[in-house]
Each structure stands twice: as structure tokens, then as C-alpha cells.
Amino acid sequence: MAEHGGIRTGRHCVFVLHAHLVFVTKFRHRVFTGAYLERMEQIMRDVCTDFECELAEFNGEADHVHLLVNFPPKVALSRLVNSLKGVSSRRMRQEFPELARHYYRANKLWSGSYFAGSVGGAPISVLRQYIEQQNRPV
């Protein structure tokens, strides 16, 4: 895949897709300190690389993290999310045994739910107007 000014190209497509993801700890337990968040960011960058995605931004607080992910159209966002949450939970537990007390029921760090929002480009109203103004073939 090549990139030109933020626009990526594959064999048969040209794209720029970004998603804002938010993961919350189980029961919103306040788990993370700065050192944990730094390691979490690296783990999530590695997972994104495996999926041919880019972790454009990462930040978090004690009970949640925010990710801005640039992803190709062949990636199912739900699969990426499952991998990000699963790998990060497993590796954080292995590398920081003291976190084990925060892993509730079935050794889960993360809540089962997550937020995913599409990001970037023109507002929906502008896109609607653009599409409506296209000439229809007669």
C-alpha cells in the first residue's frame, strides 16, 4: 500500500478511512497510570501494524483509552477491535502482574462494549448536497 498526502492506495482502491475507538475498563475501574498507558499504546500500535492499519493518535485516562485508527477497507473494524482488546489485555497482564486484581470475571480487562465512530471528510450535510447535485444520466 502506498500513501499520498494521507490518501492510501491498494491494488484496486484509493481510500482514507479513520475510526475513533474508545475502550472502557471493566466496571470503569481506574486501572491505568502513565506508564501503563505508554505500554498500552505500543501494544496497540503493534496490533494495528499487523492489520495494515495505522494508530494515528492514542490517549487515555485511568479508566478508558481513545484511539484514532487509519484502516484499509479490507479490515473489518470489529475484528480489529477484538484483536486490540484481546492482545492488549493479555500482554498487559503478562507484563504487569500487579494488574491482575483489576481483571474481573473471566480475566477481562475491558468492558465487552466499545465506541466506534467514523471520522474525517466532509460533514454528512455537505456530502448529501454534493450527491443530490450530481447530474443524472438521461
UniProtKB/TrEMBL annotation:
NCBIfam families: transpos_IS200. GO terms for molecular function: DNA binding; transposase activity. Residues 14-134 form the Transposase IS200-like domain. Coiled coil: none annotated. The lineage of its organism: Bacteria, Bacillati, Actinomycetota, Actinomycetes, Streptosporangiales. InterPro entries: Transposase_17 (IPR002686), Transposase_17_sf (IPR036515). SUPFAM superfamilies: Transposase IS200-like. One of its GO terms (biological process) is DNA transposition. PANTHER family: TRANSPOSASE FOR INSERTION SEQUENCE ELEMENT IS200 (PTHR33360). This is IS200/IS605 family transposase. It comes from the Bacteria.
